[in-house]
Write a structure and sequence with these properties.
heterodimer, A: about 100 residues, alpha+beta, Alpha-Beta Plaits, two-stranded antiparallel ribbon, about 25% helix, B: about 450 residues, alpha/beta, FAD/NAD(P)-binding domain, D-Amino Acid Oxidase, Chain A, domain 2, 3 domains, elongated
């Protein structure tokens, strides 16, 4: 594949996420990462692969979470080894709000 | 009851999706005091689905709902397509019989769910939006049982005789009380979806629709780059819901990124005629439970029942993907059982056992049992690549008049089969398994 231009107007994931409304909780992140366990269990690579919002990335050997862009699906938690990732929903009223759904 | 504290409500429902709102509505109609606690700022704001609601069960609760509720289109055309990089082979079913009575509708949850919650409110349900429930409130009974007596949200505690966990596929509440466990990755899939805006008349023309007719396309093959799962393309009134569902074990094995696979689907030449000129107005994702009957555990214990996706109630039969209708079916069973348990003054697991019995008798578990073999069948790999290629190859040879002498269809098929990586034993085995599973 490849070569064919995308037929819809908005193209990159960040641009797409920008169409959503996010109420960012500046006081607390709803995602915590255990670097040691993430490395030893392979959870780091798995959560980077499955997250549709590309929340997770590796920077200088550490897995970082851009929690503000989270779509709150919980797929990362479904592939994470026990203890490697602490993930819960943002506090009430915070996080993503779908206008379509 | 082990508690002397008078509860604040008869029932606390956590989550204002179809399961939560329908359960709350029916419990209020039965004369009980009910609160729905919803973490989104409004019902629906956290909710996302592919978009097709098989709504006959909702007609039992709200007769003729499709005329009143903010639904998108009435699905009268189902298209199932095998996609290869440069071809597609499909089955196209259109039936006026699907229009009346209304069989399935497309919905956008941020618009549809508020309507359902409003119905519950009109029936007397108290709605608390913008509040995240953090944990269950439990007490130890004299017999040592852990009885759920309410919920905790921040510093607040709210008590009830029964808690309904309608908190979606991740159901932290069900997990905290041991009703759900972490599922293996072959039972779970991630859905990635965009809503693409197009003018209504453009959608009518491209999908061959008139009035409020709608089309649902289910797609397998190159749309997921061979990963177990599939793609979908549904028509809303003035937008399309387009997405992929990817089984997590296969996605990890393929070493691909979910957003890249979605990208590939969106840019696929097979979709271009439908999507051209559209504008993405929303991007979202949803975790999908695909284990079917295998992952259904206990649905009730002392003082709590689990409904909808929180109970793992979804069916992927390959041809239809269902969640919302099962959620509503489970809500009907649960609300009847809860009303009965409260009337009898027994809200222990024994008192609430009527929920599982009703679920067993309803279409929800009957259908789940019918499709019990579907998840294992859909894990067979030929479905996502080689079979589509084989079918495309047969049709190419039938229609491509390249000057070579024509052959009968059987020979064409046999030649294509010999060129394909598919082996006869595998084809027969998969074919037989498919007929029995779907």
């Amino acid at each position: 594949m490849g070569g064919g231009a995308c037929t819809v107007k908005t193209t990159t994931v960040p641009e797409r996420l920008a169409t959503n409304r996010f109420e960012i909780d500046e006081d607390e992140s709803h995602i915590e990462i255990d670097q040691e366990l993430c490395r030893s269990t392979g959870t780091g690579a798995a959560i980077i692969a499955v997250c549709p919002a590309n929340v997770y990335s590796e920077q200088d050997g550490k897995i970082v979470a851009d929690y503000a862009a989270c779509l709150e699906c919980g797929t990362c938690l479904a592939v994470a080894a026990p203890g490697a990732l602490t993930w819960h929903y943002p506090r009430g009223g915070f996080g993503v709000s779908f206008r379509e759904g | 009851m082990s508690t002397e504290v008078e509860p604040d409500f008869d029932v606390i429902v956590v989550g204002a999706g179809p399961a939560g709102s329908v359960a709350a509505y029916r419990l209020a109609k039965a004369g009980l005091s009910v609160v729905i606690i919803e973490r989104g700022e409004a019902p629906g704001s956290k909710n996302l689905s592919g978009g097709v609601l098989y709504g006959r069960v909702l007609d039992e609760v709200f007769p003729g709902f499709a005329d009143e509720a903010p639904v998108e289109r009435r699905i009268t055309r189902h298209v199932t397509t095998f996609l290869t990089p440069d071809s597609h082979v499909g089955i196209d079913y259109r039936g006026a019989g699907l229009a009346e009575p209304v069989n399935a509708v497309t919905v956008l949850r941020a618009k549809f769910d508020p309507w359902l919650a409003e119905k519950a409110e009109e029936a007397g349900v108290f709605l608390m939006p913008g509040v995240r429930v953090d944990s269950l409130l439990t007490e130890t009974g004299i017999d040592g049982r852990q009885q759920v007596v309410g919920v905790r949200a921040g510093d607040d505690e709210l008590r009830a005789r029964v808690v309904v966990a309608a908190d979606g596929v991740n159901s932290f509440l069900a997990k905290s009380i041991g009703l759900r466990h972490k599922e293996p990755t072959n039972h779970m899939a991630v859905g990635v979806k965009a809503v693409v805006r197009l003018p209504r008349t453009t959608i009518d023309d491209r999908f061959g629709l008139v009035g409020d007719e709608g089309a649902a396309h289910a797609i397998v093959g190159d749309c997921t780059q061979g990963i177990g799962g599939g793609g979908f393309l549904y028509t809303n009134t003035e937008s399309l819901s387009v997405g992929v569902v990817l089984r997590l074990d296969d996605l990890l094995k393929a070493g691909k990124n979910a957003s890249d696979v979605f990208e590939h689907f969106l840019a696929h030449p097979g979709l271009a005629p439908y999507l051209r000129g559209g504008e993405i107005i929303e991007y979202g994702s949803h975790l999908v439970a695909e284990g079917g009957m295998d992952m259904l555990g206990e649905v009730a214990t002392h003082g709590i029942v689990v409904v909808g996706e929180a109970a793992g109630l979804t069916i992927n039969s390959g041809l239809t993907v269902r969640g919302m209708d099962l959620a509503i079916g489970s809500a009907i069973a649960a609300s009847d059982a809860i009303a009965e348990a409260i009337a009898h003054g027994d809200v222990t697991a024994t008192g609430l056992a009527g929920y599982r019995r009703r679920l067993d008798e309803s279409f929800v578990l009957k259908d789940l049992k019918t499709y019990a073999k579907a998840p294992a069948f859909l894990e067979r790999t030929g479905m996502y690549g080689a079979y589509g290629e084989l079918a495309a190859s047969v049709f190419h040879d039938v229609f491509s008049l390249d000057g070579t002498p024509r052959k009968h269809l059987a020979s064409v098929a046999w030649d294509a089969f010999k060129r394909s990586p598919v082996r006869l034993g595998q084809l027969l085995s998969d074919g037989w398994a498919g007929v029995r599973a779907l």
